[in-house]
């Protein structure tokens, strides 16, 4: 089966350039992989001692950051190589402050795996969350390179638990240690006879918990919010925007709204703005404006959302009302903010846990959004209690990085 898998991946690699003609994202996916090996030959020397982190996209990268920071601090003799599978991760973090080299991960063919590992010759490898590439893992195992799963998630809908994915189980032998997020993943991993497995928690909690200690001041957001309640709608998609635009139009004056869409292409911003019947200003046109006079602030740029959450009284996080996947709920939660999301969040254990604690509420339609937003905005006691639960949720779940670093320290005697 692995041979068939490798043949299919090779065929995909051959035909992918055609797909780039029809999709800008696929064009980045293909073009970004063209020069990976030449970049590595230029940036990595035989003398470099390498630790390799691989992340699917931006969320997984954020899970890796706390461990990266600690490694740089305590083991400066090592250089980091960071790889991404997705353009949405690579394009945002290709100029990060941690790595000596940051590239796309070449597709999972045996030849690519051999060449890539030859070039970076890692001493330690971290695959983050649920990135499992059989040919890379097999090659790492052959070379006895220590490999760790960081903030891992196992669930019964993964291929390992299906008849057609049993062959992939062998590649998991490459892992020397599995650090998983929760007990459900531990139970699932034990059902696969994986070992050793440690419930470390999610390193993103460590990442976001530090944000509250930073300077999150944004003068233009202060000017916009003034002394009113503020709802921050983060990483939204059109299906999210449809329901809260309706709420905004019908409840003018109840609160200020800041909207940070996931996609900031001009046509997407125009479409969003057309849904709103209140005074709206864009980040790109804020200069010279009396911002306090506007009802909605649309952030058509990237890199500001984490700080903007510090101004929120309520947060709505996008992605779960449709099928694109829930975005980061931990960033607003660290500021002690009540959170609302869509109802498709089955793959996000942190959202399930926060919902069970009553620090997060889900909606599936307009009526449910109207009810929870109205309750959170009109009932101060309810809003404060819900926010306190969210903040405590972050504080009580930190420590995953410390657990992983103890393991790394044990490797160095």
Specify the CATH homologous superfamily of the largest domain. 3-Deoxy-D-manno-octulosonic-acid transferase, N-terminal domain
Largest sheet: 7 strands, parallel
Strand content: 15-25%
Can you tell me the number of structural domains?
A: 2
The proportion of residues forming helix, as a percent range, comes to: 40-55%
Under CATH, the topology of the largest domain can be stated as: Rossmann fold
SSE-based structural type: alpha/beta
User: Are there runs of 5+ residues with pLDDT below 50, and where?
Assistant: none
Supply the CATH architecture of the largest domain: 3-Layer(aba) Sandwich
Q: Please tally the β strands and state the result.
A: 14
Rg result:
22 Å
What is the tally of helical segments?
18
Spatially, the strands of the biggest sheet line up as 3-2-1-4-5-6-7
CATH class of the largest domain: Alpha Beta
Multimeric state of these chains? single chain
Distance between the termini: 40 Å
Question: What does the overall shape look like?
Answer: globular
- The average pLDDT is 93
Describe the structure.
This protein is of the alpha/beta class. The chain has 2 domains: 32-202 and 398-411, 3-Deoxy-D-manno-octulosonic-acid transferase, N-terminal domain (Rossmann fold); 216-395, Glycogen Phosphorylase B (Rossmann fold, 3-Layer(aba) Sandwich), CATH 3.40.50.2000. It is built from 18 helices and 14 strands. The chain has a 7-stranded parallel beta sheet with strand order 3-2-1-4-5-6-7, with helices on both faces. A 7-stranded parallel beta sheet has the order 10-11-9-8-12-13-14. Helix 6 (110-120) crosses helix 7 (134-142). The longest helix is centred in the N-terminal third of the chain and has 18 residues, at 2-19. The mean pLDDT is 93.
